[in-house]
Specification:
Elements (H helix, E strand, L loop, with lengths): L8 E8 L2 E7 L3 E5 L3 E10 L2 E11 L4 E10 L4 E10 L2 E9 L3 E11 L2 H9 L6 H10 E2 L2 E13 L5 E17 L8 E11 L2 E5 L4 E2 L2 E2 L4 E5 L8 E5 L9 H9 L4
Antiparallel strand pairs: 1-2, 2-3, 3-4, 4-5, 5-6, 6-7, 7-8, 8-9, 9-11, 10-12, 11-12, 12-13, 13-14, 13-15, 14-17, 15-16, 17-18
């Protein structure tokens, strides 16, 4: 893109997040699309910066609306996008920055009551670890999610691809159903605070139960959350009510303890 004027530009196969996009850039609009996604901006220019506002946004199979803008710093080759998104499964505010060195994705005020569909939509464009998806969409499922702050920073590798430079978040969850292993009773947590830092997701709660027995003094966290070869869960169960009954025996047996 020229720093003195906006030129027409067309790219049929622009690769981003391992998917092929079509990009059309003219004096009046910017269009980015693939088979499932369409994003159209009206554009203007101030000195070497190009300013774009979203006037059409669609995502196949999802009812989505957005109020977003994009700033392109042509002399630095930096793309900064921010705004808000609302749909049937999620709503949030966001900022998204792309440079030749890194990608920064920041989300605030996120609410979702269908995390499984949300991760399905995300995995369309970003390759997520299967173990992580299984934990979030099957093993640890809640009725409602409130993410106060989420930040992901990807640094570009020397040859190709990206590494996770920083991943952090804090959130609140209502009515969590935590399944430690297939075929065993789940742990029920009515209200849960989550904190993600240094690849560790900590669970903070005042009430929890297993097989209708109180285990509120227990400790739970997920470790090495970005490492598919090491990711796992730590559970320390503390209770004055828990007995070695059939449900607990089945849980222990699933870990090879009994």
């Amino acid at each position: 893109v020229s720093s003195c004027c906006i030129l027409s530009h067309k790219v049929e196969n622009m690769k981003l997040f391992e998917r092929e996009f079509r990009l059309l850039f003219t004096k009046e609009e910017l269009l980015i699309e693939d088979s499932k996604f369409l994003l159209k901006f009206s554009i203007s220019q101030e000195n070497s910066n190009i300013i774009a506002n979203v006037n059409k946004f669609s995502f196949k199979d999802y009812n989505i609306s957005t109020n977003s803008s994009l700033l392109i710093k042509t002399d630095e080759d930096v793309y900064d996008m921010n705004g808000s998104i609302s749909s049937d499964i999620v709503s949030f505010d966001y900022s998204f920055s792309v440079s030749d060195r890194e990608i920064v994705f920041h989300i605030t005020k996120l609410y979702s009551n269908d995390i499984k569909s949300l991760f399905s939509a995300i995995s369309t464009y970003i390759k997520l670890d299967k173990e992580l998806v299984e934990w979030v969409s099957k093993k640890a499922v809640a009725k409602e999610y409130y993410i106060n702050d989420f930040k992901l920073v990807l640094s570009k590798k020397f040859i190709s691809g990206y590494d996770i430079k920083n991943l952090s978040a804090n959130a609140k969850v209502k009515n969590l159903d935590l399944v430690l292993n297939n075929g065993v009773e789940s742990i029920l947590i009515p209200n849960l605070d989550l904190n993600l830092s240094k690849e560790k997701l900590d669970f903070y709660f005042e009430q929890a139960s297993f097989n209708a027995k109180d285990i509120s003094r227990s400790k739970v966290f997920i470790y090495d959350i970005t490492n598919p070869k090491k990711i796992g869960i730590y559970v320390r169960v503390l209770s004055d009510e828990l007995k070695l009954d059939k449900a607990l025996h089945k849980l222990l047996n699933s870990y090879g303890i009994m």
